[in-house]
Amino acid sequence: MKTIILFAILSGVVCLSCTNKRQQSQPEATPDKESVIIGGNDTVTDIQVSTAENDTILSLQAGDIDFPSSQSEIEKYESRVRMQRLPDVNITHADAYRIETQQPVYSPQTKQIVLDVINVDGPTAEPECHHLKQWENGKWVKFPFIDNLVFSGVGRDLSKGDTLPEQIHMSEFKYPLKPNKYQVNFYVFANIYTYCNLTTDGITPVRETEMNGAFVFKVLPSANDSIRILFENHTNLDVQPIFFPSVGTDELYMAHPFARSGWSGEADYMRSHARLKGGDVLLFTIPVSWDVNRITGKNYRKQFMTGKLLPGKYKIGLQLEIYMDTEFEVK
To answer: What DSSP line would sit under 31-51, residue for residue?
Structure first.
């Protein structure tokens, strides 16, 4: 589904594709959890929730990133989508995804390590990137790749119950293996969807499209001022929503001008504010109306001139990275 390029060319401003780039995890923020759900447009809505070196700054035009608004408007994250932490839920699908090396112990002469990537009971996902760490002075430290390493490949679907091999070639790394402990870090990418109906009376979920199990992903019934999207992590794995949720239809990718942008700055914002540990819950609130004057692209302004979502059926999407690790020894 994508080509991954491990260069230092990402120092500028880039737009992420739908299956994003390789990057290290950043420390997650831990905002206070809230137990109330507040409606959009300065209203309050009652909802019953049942839970299971130098930086270069570029001035972008909306067309450069295929999004209706300028970079400055995109970066007004809190005015686009509200995120709230809700009380934890039970971990019922601990290792929904798992990785294992095919041997627990390898020799220093090993040229290739085969990693089994297992989908125990999670949604269909794509195996993505691996990297290694080594045990040094009482902590895990990066085991570096060679310079200018390029990874390329096609997407592979990892469906529930499937196991796929991931080959780790030691020629990828600057140094040979030595007797020590090593850790493999890996993630899979998942694109999940649910639907809702917007009417003059309110917003209702399309029940048969709700996701349950390892992850709960659904729209909550509410007044028609905002779409309220619940995401629960019932695994013991770290999960990263890459961008805000998307709002579209089966025919139209982008129905809302201030939902998911695909902008790398938005991904950085999410990594700082929206990483989920096991049992964590996030509520996304997206107002159904918007200020047309904030839309800078002429064609987009025409497309979104109504200033609000019209009654109809909407497709809500969320892109996830799901992280795993495992260990092996070299003797």
So the answer is: PPB------STT---------
- Contact between 308 and 247 under an 8 Å Cβ cutoff? The reply is no
pLDDT at 152 (0 to 100): 63
Tell me: do 214 and 314 sit in the same domain.
yes
| Residue 140 to residue 303: CA distance in whole angstroms | 51
Beta bridge partners of residue 30, listed in sequence order? none
Q: Are residues 245 and 260 in the same domain?
A: yes
Given this model, what pLDDT does residue 28 score?
A: 35
Domain of residue 265 covers 38-51+60-91+190-322
pLDDT at res. 232: 99
| CB environment 94-110: b (16+ within 10 A), e (fewer) | ebbbbbbbeeeebeeee
- The pLDDT of residue 234 is 99
pLDDT tens-digit readout, 212-232:
999 999 999 999 999 999 999
Residues 154 and 219 in one domain: no
CATH of the domain at 105: 2.60.40
Give me the pLDDT at residue 297, please: 81
Task: Give Dmax (Cα) for the chain.
Answer: 68
For residue 176, the tally of other CB atoms under 10 A from its CB is 12
Q: Within this chain, do residues 240 and 283 fall inside the same structural domain, yes or no?
A: yes
Low-confidence stretches of the chain (pLDDT beneath 50) = 1-64
17: buried, middle or exposed (CB in 10 Å: 19+, 13-18, 0-12)? Answer: exposed
Q: 83: which 2 tokens?
A: 């995120």
Phi first, then psi: what are they for 216, rounded to 5°? -100, 130
CA angle in degrees (0–180, nearest 5) for 103-106-107: 155
